[in-house]
Design a protein that fits this description.
9 helices; about 35% helix; three-stranded parallel sheet; alpha/beta; protein acetyllysine N-acetyltransferase; EC 2.3.1.286; Ssirtuin_cat_dom; NAD; globular
Length: about 200
Amino acid sequence: MDDRQHALTVAWEWIRDADALLICAGAGMGVDSGLPDFRGPEGLWRHYPGLARAQLSFQEIASPWAFQHDAALAWGFYGHRLAMYRQAQPHRGFAQLRQWGDAKPHGCAVYTSNVDGQFQKAGFRSQPLTECHGSLHFMQCTQPCGEQVWSADDFVPEVDLAITAVLPWMHSVLQPPCWHGATCGTCTVGAQELAPHWRHLHPGG
């Protein structure tokens, strides 16, 4: 038995003998569902040429700063990703994990850095599920006015991928009160100061 086969056998024995499972998943979990992992700036810029022209890294575009300084570009990036995540279907690995977890006396829990909502779509609803980086399917205010989040279900941004920006007609939609979900109910800022839900921005949210 080679080292790889031995490691797989040991892993399977651990899973078989466990009375509960903790599933920890990162970006690689979504690749087989057709979702990019954006490894390195070249991977990011290949998918989003507008970010390449602006020489913005993932860390820079994935921040409140981006929404405050160039909302059209930030929403272009997140709007396209949100559309991808809504369309993507979880691969069969999710079902296998759920099957293993459901068979355990104490079930399973999920801890993921992914923001794509694939675990929920795959049926992980009753299990404890922590999204340590938040979720693109919810919004929050970038101001420190509270911990409220809103569903993004009604938000359907139209994006020009060539420039990685929302279409011009959407600029007015992204102003209050045109789209009810894009206005903070606490401090009344507009969508240019709302962002996807990042758990690190308001950890209690």
